[in-house]
Amino acid sequence: MTTLPLAGRVALVTGAGNGIGLAIARVLAERGARVALNDLDLEAAARAAQTLGEAHLSVRADVSSEADVEAMVGEVRDAFGRIDILVNNAGVGDGGVPTLDQSLAVFERTLAIHVNGTFLMSRAVAAGMARQGGGAIINLGSIAGELGIPVRTAYSVAKAGISMMTRVLACEWARFGIRVNAVAPGYVRTRLVEGLITSGRLDARRIAARTPLGRMGQPEEIARVVAFLASQEASYVTGAIVPVDGGYTAFGGPFDASGAFSGYDAAAPAKEGDSGPPRRTGHDPREGDGS
């Protein structure tokens, strides 16, 4: 009988009531972990936990509150006895407001949830992980923390802070056997993003054209990378910021990233006997988002 890669492990996933967080919780559970699903909305966390089965737990906490974080970590340890995996996924958007119009209250709240929350959660579980002989912390960064995206000041600063915190904690806690990594998703088709597309605030076709793989990501594609980083398959990986963005941050050309209707699409014919990679001359990514 094949043993599941995360069998016997306990995971705590913040912001797991829906979207990427729920997808991460689901994949971790499928790979054998018992999962505590956190959300500020306890009902959402409870509904999500029920979809995974009776072995899992729902817990409420505001990750920007030190008291809430300490109480939640204690509750999970009381229920499961340990925490082996922490996924810092909880977050909020900043509304996409131009910086000159951005309020200090929204700016501070965005940083409090992303940066303070990641710090408080990581600190709260690290001592227990060290006593156990190790653990894995996976943070949710973003392409917004790696690239300059206009009108995303608070969110971008928060995600850049998470990236640096990931590196610092990885170096500081490696001697305890704690690995700390981050994933940096690109545009992902969550329920929130679908709403932005429907309302016209986000142009899916332009994003697809800017992305070398020609489409947005799916929550499960982020979740599978998180599960890898949580597993022993990634036992020599720490301090890494892994882009899961379809090539978005790698691309630097002044034309459509898909290759269609672009200069590099006019490649020289393949030599005789060499089939070579297929050319993508027949597809205009502007005709659809590829999802």
UniProtKB/TrEMBL annotation:
Family recorded in the similarity comment: Belongs to the short-chain dehydrogenases/reductases (SDR) family.
One MF term in the entry's GO annotations: oxidoreductase activity, acting on the CH-OH group of donors, NAD or NADP as acceptor
UniProt xrefs under PANTHER family: SHORT-CHAIN DEHYDROGENASES/REDUCTASES FAMILY MEMBER (PTHR42760)
Coiled coil feature spans: none
Protein's name according to its UniProt entry: SDR family oxidoreductase
Origin superkingdom: Bacteria
Compositionally skewed regions (Basic and acidic residues) per UniProt: 281-291
Matching CDD domains: SDR_c
InterPro entries noted in UniProt: NAD(P)-bd_dom_sf, Sc_DH/Rdtase_CS, SDR_fam
Positions of region (Disordered): 266-291
Organism: Xanthobacter dioxanivorans
